[in-house]
Specification:
Layout: H1 12-15, H2 22-49, H3 52-69, H4 72-86, H5 93-111
Helix pairs in contact: 2-3, 2-5, 3-4, 4-5
Length: about 110
């Protein structure tokens, strides 16, 4: 379940950095969705393979890019999966990956 503590998307985190250049913001958001979709798919494969290092690397990168564009729930879900992998524990990885997937789908829908 996505964290209800963080907003799904906080546009000001991205728009403030681009002096409200709507075209640049839209281009970045579109690129983010494409790249994040690929990362989420790679994460699903890494979790299925129980590849701790790949899960850590992918989740960490997604957490950073999601936070940068203001996708705060996705960033939080990615951080939880990253922390699990950093600890070398993928016991809850499928559950955390499913949460991350749901957060991504919600974020993608909000950005459409």
């Amino acid at each position: 379940m996505p964290s209800s503590e963080a907003p799904l998307f906080q546009a000001s985190l991205l728009t403030d950095g681009f002096a409200h250049d709507d075209a640049a913001v839209q281009e970045l958001l579109e690129l983010f969705v494409v790249e994040a979709a690929a990362t989420v798919a790679q994460l699903a494969s890494a979790v299925a393979a129980r590849d701790v290092e790949a899960v850590r690397r992918l989740a960490h990168g997604l957490a950073g890019s999601a936070a940068t564009i203001g996708a705060l729930q996705l960033a939080a879900a990615s951080e939880r999966l990253d922390e699990s992998a950093r600890a070398g524990r993928l016991v809850r990885a499928k559950e955390l990956q499913a949460e991350l997937q749901r957060s991504f789908e919600s974020t993608r829908a909000a950005l459409a």
